[in-house]
Amino acid sequence: MGLTEPTIDxxxxxxxxxxxxxxxxxxxxxxTAPTGATLLAxxxxxxxxxxxxxxxxxxALAQEELCVCDLATLVDVSESAVSHSLRTLRQLxxxxxxxxxxxxYYSLDDAHVAQLVAExxxxxxxxxx
Length: 129
What we know:
Layout (H helix, E strand, L loop, with lengths): L22 H10 L3 H14 L2 H10 L4 E2 H8 L3 H13 L3 E6 L2 E6 L2 H18 L1
Antiparallel strand pairs: 1-3, 2-3
């Protein structure tokens, strides 16, 4: 006779079956937890990166500094749409620009942004395997 798999009630499988709050752990976590303002800023950044066009722009800028014209061609949207996306990303300090004559070149604001995107891509590729 074969063995049968135990039946798991999926409606409660992801919850504690008893109340077991660990006050010491909670205190340690609360000590180092980010402030509400910090979490709000991070949520706004993730929200901005949740747009496929902005994410394509950030991914491109993780490789190379590019001007608005290059980015518009690369992501296949209008320069106006790219400028709008870049303005959002600039307000969140995800990208920065420099002007050379009449050309605006964009790059990532710092290495953290590139790491964030790389980690996200690594996660997606790992999950997809």
